[in-house]
Amino acid sequence: MGQIALEGLEFFAFHGYYDEEQKIGNKYGVDLYISTNLLAAGESDKLQQTVNYEVLYRLVAEEMRAPARLLEHVAHRVLDRIMAELPHVRKVRISVSKFNPPLGGICHRARVTLVRRRQPKTTA
């Protein structure tokens, strides 16, 4: 088992609880951590035996383009996509941050973190 991380991804997107946030947009950050078996890729040096960083980035970018009211919802959608499209991924942890959230005071970022583990297959 090993980990692949994409840290510090930045997007300008139109998420937010308030209608104004969805109109003017804001800067968001994403940190993504994938747990999977990296042994075969380490031995073979072949991209098809690991998780392609470009594929991960594309999945995150696509979900960031679709407006949502809550950061929790954005993170949940990314987890759904990764688990559906990358069956060899065992665990995903994602943090989604909104920079300078409209709280009426100073706050550099608001962040949510979600984790999902693939359930082991059961035999009948």
From TrEMBL:
The record's annotation in Pfam families points to:
FolB
Enzyme nomenclature, EC number? 4.1.2.25
Q: Which SUPFAM superfamilies match?
A: Tetrahydrobiopterin biosynthesis enzymes-like (SSF55620)
Catalytic activity reads: 7,8-dihydroneopterin = 6-hydroxymethyl-7,8-dihydropterin + glycolaldehyde
Give the record's keywords alphabetically: Folate biosynthesis, Lyase
Q: Which GO terms describe its cellular component?
A: cytoplasm
The alphabetized list of GO BP terms reads: folic acid biosynthetic process; tetrahydrofolate biosynthetic process
Q: Locate the Dihydroneopterin aldolase/epimerase domain: which residues?
A: 4-116
- Enzyme class, top EC level, equals lyase
Per the record, the pathway is:
Cofactor biosynthesis; tetrahydrofolate biosynthesis; 2-amino-4-hydroxy-6-hydroxymethyl-7,8-dihydropteridine diphosphate from 7,8-dihydroneopterin triphosphate: step 3/4
Gene Ontology terms, MF aspect: dihydroneopterin aldolase activity
- Superkingdom of origin organism: Bacteria
Q: Which PANTHER family match?
A: DIHYDRONEOPTERIN ALDOLASE 1-RELATED
* NCBIfam families documented for this protein: folB, folB_dom
What's the family?
Belongs to the DHNA family.
**Role, per record:** Catalyzes the conversion of 7,8-dihydroneopterin to 6-hydroxymethyl-7,8-dihydropterin.
Q: What is this protein called?
A: 7,8-dihydroneopterin aldolase
State the species of origin. Hymenobacter montanus
Write the gene name: folB
